[in-house]
# Entry
Amino acid sequence: MLRYLLGRIAGALTVVVVVSVVTFAIFQLAPRLTGANMAFYYTGKSTSEAQAAAVAQKFGFDKPLPEQYWTFMSGIVAGRDLSDGVTEVRCPAPCLGYSFRQNRPVLEMIGEAFPVTLGLTLGAAVLWLLFGVAAGVLSAVRRGSVFDRLATAVALIGVSVPEFFTGMLLIYLLTSGPAWLRLYPDGINYVPLTEDPVGWFAAMVPPWTCLALLFAALYARLTRATMLETLSEDYVRTAWAKGLPPRTVVGRHGLRAVLPPIVTLVGLDVGALLGGVVLVETLFSFPGLGRLAYRAITSQDLPVIMGVTIVGALLIVCANLIVDLLYGVLDPRVRNAR
Amino acid sequence: MRLLISAGAVVATLVTAGCSASADKDNGGDAAGFDAARKGVVNASDATGGTLRLGGTSDCDSWDPAATYNGFCWNMQRLMTRTLVASPGYGDPARTMKPGELVPDLATALGESNADKTVWTYKLRPGVKFSSGAAITSTDIKYGFQRMWATDVISGGPAGYFLCLLDTCDGEGNPAYQGPYKDKTGGLARIETPDPQTIVFKLTSSFADFDYLMALPATAPVPKAADTGGTYTRKVTASGPFVMSEYTPGQGVTWTRNPHWSQDTDEVRRPKVDKVTLTLLSNPDDLDARLKNGSLDLSAGGGVQPTFQSEILNTASLKANADNPVSGFVGLFAIFPTAPSLDNVHCRRAIAYALDKRDLLVQSGGSFGGDFAATLLPPAVPGHDTKANAYPSGADWTGDLDKAKHELVECGKPDGFDTVMAYTNSGSDPQIFASVQAALKRVGITVTGKQQDESVYYGSYIGAPANVKQQQLGIAAIGWAPDYPSGNGFLSLLVDGARIQDEGTTNYVSVNDDVLNGLIKRATTAPLVEQAGIFQELDKQTMERAIYIPYFYQKFLLYRNPRLTNVDLRADLGSYDLVNLGVSDGK
# Structure
């Protein structure tokens, strides 16, 4: 198990390094290809020429890319002294850069936004797993029943309707819809969990629902298909023949076989969403990583875009690592494989 | 310098807007109704207390008064900063407003100038204070100016108006003074403060519009002790009735009452509420939903989205709480005489006649998104001529093809010609291009398009005469708005021969005409009362040369919460005068 664990961690670290190299290269090369002055991406369009020159000199935009990359990575470990050409700023380790547009370290901004995205993602994941897997299992067990047909129809709708439509519909109905549905007359406003847990939960329900509707449908379809396949296996038939109760057959023998692909998918989905639920956060104006990234992109705040991208990639890698480890727990054949 | 955006972005951008309300305002209006705030004050009331809840979809470029250049931010600056002079206080039924009117604010009177308009003197009111409790002196006013010269720290604002007007500049327009951070010796000798109540500006050249410049938020006083340079945006020291008490970038702002502001010293503002909040939402439809359900009172930025717009126009109860003012933005085309064929004025006029302004209006948002434009000066700017129309587009505004063809014959191109049109990739610019292309095709003018990113469009693309020539641009779509309600802040920038420069010129067509230059020069020393006539003539002369052709004056559909009191529209910005709004329920 230890060997398996170390192997996976080494793999994950390699991926993180590769991602950081690629991200850095993309964001440093793209402006050069379009002939734009890199300094303006750091300090804004209204930057004076003198200020831009000072920034270019400070960040060493004229130096070879590997040297710039090394400086960037060193900053993550040891921190950096940065400048917008006017203000000297100490960006403490781990330094992912500094937004001179907002006069704040990127990591601080990410640190504020991450709990919002984490809450959104985990809450939605619980919902979609609960409803998706349960609906999938029931559909498989009662194949052909009214419930199965209904669940299939609902899943089809859930998969087909995009998040922005569901989100807008929820916002409209819950804030301006019929009086009996107007549960959020003051709008759906994010409240930090630490300030007001009840308010936080209430604010989270609509975006959770919006996200979960899409994913629950996908998971219901996946669970149903995998469950049907499993229930037709010989060992399940044997279990039925032995006279085991349905709960044991379905729960212990059937569901266990379904879990590995579900866990894999959850890991990937949660990891991707943690990197920023851009659409949902933008729709509901929740100050998470997705909205942070969106604002950074629209204002061309390069340090923030790079920081969010690297953190997003890191989260996906971490989620995959956890999935790999869970996979080992769920299926001993995986951890013993060479 | 100017506030400008692409013609297409004009439609969607929630920036500043002027309105034509003032001219036809009869004041004292009270009942709500469609366009009621254009005709008078809606729900006039002396009730105080409560919170004014504003919504917006984008944060200000800066809350530092010297670093902001967005119209809606200028309107909100009025909550917390005061200037020597200002636009009048709206929401006051007793006041009669005129287009372009200014009134004293921190000063006791409008600027007193010498005969050639090069020396301007202002006296400060006694008893005016910052939110810190300190008295506002002429030194604080001067320090607010000095910061603008620190272009390496304070950038983005309208400093371009002041740098060479109040300091000696080199041939490239760089002033000698470097701002208070680099030059701690005092500097900027052209601003004198003989005593704490007096400030004297000694200009490098005549400038009759100087009072208008003194109304820009960038001229607000800043106490040196509270100046934090580039981060002043996060903690502005207030001189107005509200002070920024909470600010989360990108999420919202809360202003509470400034305990040191006194109504006795302020004739412009009559604040009624205790608190003002600005909630920033990334979803404009969510903002509209909140306006509709009353959880927000107003959009600080501008008009509503098309979905809500349609709902408002089709629902009597909603429509009664909406206004549709003309903004200061003008959609126009620059016609470059440097392009092949277009060096002939008749070819340029052929374009002017052949444009389908009806379709251009449709592409720009329809009749509630704008009005047909026939002059360059928009309705809110003194000198706007409601009767002028140099190139009538026919009774239905779809173009006068006979006259266009006649002009082509006069030009020596009876079968038309080929030309290139520049436009941005934002807003409805691509549709505007398609409309122009289709309209001109009717008379044989073939237009091909060159699309550019908006970030470089005005500066280095159409703003660089060499590039215009190299690309053989014949037409360019432009969105243009006055920084202040004067022809000087709008039209002069477009045609002043002295403004031709290698890059970033605002004289896009590089016109250097003695008649136009003469009118501009005359305006620099003429009394304000004569300026409307001068700029009307400048407008007429420019139109005759067919170097700029306007096609629409932008309008916004604004929605106001029925609980709001003292609702009135600002002629200079075309949005509600936020600082004087009250709420009827006291909440």
